[in-house]
Write a structure and sequence with these properties.
InterPro entries: NAD(P)-bd_dom_sf (IPR036291), Sc_DH/Rdtase_CS (IPR020904), SDR_fam (IPR002347). The chain is α/β, with parallel strands linked by helices and 251 residues long. It contains eight helices and seven strands. The chain has a single domain, classed as Rossmann fold. Helices cover 45% and strands 15% of the residues. Strands 3-2-1-4-5-6-7 form a seven-stranded parallel sheet, sandwiched between helices. The protein binds nicotinamide-adenine-dinucleotide.
Length: 251
């Protein structure tokens, strides 16, 4: 894809699932990738495996750690061009089960973590004269389902964040878009399956039955869409929510 080779890219939550697949595709495209993940050991080992530049321990809820990950890109790799703000954590449960601590955790990781990542990266991308960010929202960012409410609220917030930043950073040559993935086969998916009732296999079947293309998304399906949004092939696309859902939202 045009515009990915030799660019410095930061992927949060890049040690697993969708983030790992994005990191892999970006490395294939010749980007210089820094993986930042709560699990620093996994980040380092995935970075080695993929041939990425670095794998850092980084909790996106902690401003200092996020700032340090961006500073690493500037210091060690000369700057930052591309960001996949992807780290997230699942939640399912009825609203009356959501105590303050749980609510804070779900919003901190999924919404405020994305905000902190974009805030830290904005200055670095401006300094390069432009760049692109892709934020992993969810189908729960564009529609809703009972039993996911704090997660749904956070992921709707991620869409708002992408739209607001797209306008705020347009003059700086920075494009900002969001992804709304369908259920994707990653280690996170079983956590959502609980809300579907029955055991995990039954829940997966129910997920599949609701997807017109007849299969769950693979991490690579989402990564390919992320990389397109980050590439120069999407040069006129900003403030967009790219639904990658096998047709779920069509009707
Ligand atoms: P995953 O569990 O495979 O990967 C998530 C990664 O994020 C893990 O490596 C984890 O260590 C990291 N992480 C968690 N909290 C973090 C924090 N505070 N700071 C930094 N890293 C942190 O899950 P995934 O399915 O690849 O999820 C990636 C993103 O996709 C999430 O934002 C998730 O909400 C979203 N999403 C997933 C699905 C799905 O069905 N799997 C669907 C729609 C959206």
């Amino acid at each position: 894809m045009r515009g990915l080779a030799d660019r410095v890219a930061l992927v949060t939550g890049g040690a697993s699932g969708i983030g790992r697949a994005t990191a892999a595709r970006l490395v294939e495209e010749g980007s210089r990738v820094v993986i930042a993940d709560l699990d620093g050991r996994a980040a380092a080992s995935v970075a080695r495996e993929l041939g990425a530049e670095a794998g850092l321990a980084c909790d996106v809820t902690d401003t200092a750690q996020v700032d340090a990950a961006v500073a690493h890109c500037s210091r060690e790799l000369g700057g930052l061009d591309l960001v996949h703000a992807n780290a997230g954590a699942p939640f399912t449960g009825a609203i009356t089960e959501v105590d303050d601590e749980t609510l804070d955790r779900v919003l901190d990781v999924n919404l405020k973590g994305a905000f902190k990542t974009c805030r830290a990266a904005a200055g670095a991308l401006r300094a390069r004269g432009g760049g692109a960010m892709a934020l992993t929202s969810s189908l729960q960012g564009v529609m809703a389902r009972p039993g996911f409410t704090p997660y749904t609220a956070a992921k709707h917030g991620v869409v708002g964040l992408a739209r607001g930043l797209a306008l705020e950073l347009a003059d700086d040559g920075v494009r900002v878009n969001a992804l709304a993935p369908a259920p994707t086969e990653t280690p996170m998916l079983p956590a959502f399956a609980g809300a579907m009732g029955g055991d995990v296999d039954e829940a997966y079947e129910r997920f599949r039955a609701g997807i017109p293309l007849g299969r769950l998304a693979a991490p690579r399906d989402i990564a390919d869409a992320v990389c397109w949004l980050l590439s120069e092939e999407a040069a006129m696309v900003t403030g967009h929510v790219l639904v990658v859902d096998g047709g779920i939202t069509v009707g």
